[in-house]
Specification:
By secondary structure, this protein is an alpha+beta fold. It contains 5 helices and 7 strands. Strand 3 and strand 4 form a beta hairpin.
Length: 158
């Protein structure tokens, strides 16, 4: 189940961003408390841009356990492109959870006739994330340095 992040969910977000293994292929390192809080404040603002878009907690429907984050972010209401992404707590990786969440977000984006494409930015060495995106029809557009880190931009034309 995907539930928008709210102010009171910061501890779940911090559990992701403070974990070195989770953040290894996102920022190259865990975020400090200050960095994490700044990112979270930005995430909450992104959730206000357009109804149904933003950053979501992935919740286990059976026990309400926090499993990770999935996002479908529209920076501006008039944007024709959105960014998709996900991060999972270690114990939930490799179980199809990111694939399911990604499929749900793509399905939602396809219903918005104003959108032309979905993009994803990932570490080119992140084979698991890349596999999910390729299976959904994403193609590579760019591989190189992004914000000082190795990166790949993949996109799906809607």
């Amino acid at each position: 189940m995907l539930v928008p992040f709210k102010e009171q969910d910061y501890a779940d977000y911090r559990a992701l961003t403070s974990n070195p293994k989770i953040m290894e292929m996102i920022t190259g390192r865990p975020l400090s408390e200050q960095e994490s809080r700044a990112h979270y404040d930005s995430l909450l603002q992104q959730n206000q841009v357009a109804k149904g878009f933003g950053n979501f907690r992935i919740i286990n429907e059976d026990n309400n356990a926090f499993m990770g984050l999935a996002k479908l972010v529209r920076q501006q209401l008039e944007d024709k492109e959105v960014e998709i992404g996900f991060m999972l707590m270690e114990q939930f990786q490799g179980k199809g959870i990111a694939s399911t969440a990604t499929g749900q977000l793509i399905e939602f984006a396809r219903k918005d006739r104003s959108l032309l494409r979905i993009k994803a930015i990932l570490d080119p060495l992140n084979r698991a994330s890349r596999k999910i995106l390729v299976r959904e029809g994403f193609v590579s557009e760019f591989v190189g340095e992004i914000d000082g880190l190795p990166g790949e931009v993949m996109s799906l034309v809607l």
